[in-house]
Amino acid sequence: MTFFTIIGRVVLALLAEIGRLALFVWQAVSHIIRPPFFWRLTAQQMMRIGYFSLPVVALTAFFTGGALALQIYYGGNEFNSESIVASIVALGITRELGPVLGGLMVAGRVSAAIAAELGTMRVTEQIDALTTLSTNPYKYLVVPRVVAAVVTLPILVFFADIIGIMGGFVVGTSTLDFNAGVYIKNTVDFLKLSDVTSGLIKAGVFGFIIATMGCFHGFHSKGGAQGVGRATTNAVVSASILILAANYVMTSLLFAN
Known about the structure:
Elements: H1 2-32, H2 39-49, H3 54-76, H4 85-123, H5 126-132, H6 137-174, H7 180-190, H8 193-219, H9 224-254
């Protein structure tokens, strides 16, 4: 019976956490459309989440595009299919690698920062002070971060797509001896608008996941400095797992036909 008791406790704890997360998401989403709106805070979060994340996302996309070009070339060389390098790089970057790797990099940087910031505010009772001053903490702390992440992540992924394709182009023309004009023509002819928009839709969902996980774990942090550390770790891990799971679900839905 001890074994079943342990399983029951784990399942009940998991269900309780899911319920608490669902209520938190409902509070965050419902307050997005309610006044007042803190536009200045939202703009500040856009700078922190979007602009300051651009260097790491750009570097990740560039080297990913270059490595993808090499792998496709060496794999296709066995079947005399080197000409598909440009097409597959463009497809892989825009549909999958751009939004997923961009989301994971932003999750590691932003979700941890949000959880640490809100966790510190929780353990130092600053969030309770906001409530005492008749300021809704969801409206003041959560909504600007969620809105900023949902808006800025598709923009980041759009630039990541361009830079990732450029990385494949640089490697293809400098290392693999592709003709620059032919490489660009193959990319443009093969790439469709739906490939780009599907990645941007994914990026918007990933942005919501990143901000929500950071805010949720930071908002419910407890236990002093150790609790803030746990909240930061949990935010990054949960955001990363949910990004990968959501990517599978959206890929199944967007490309079912």
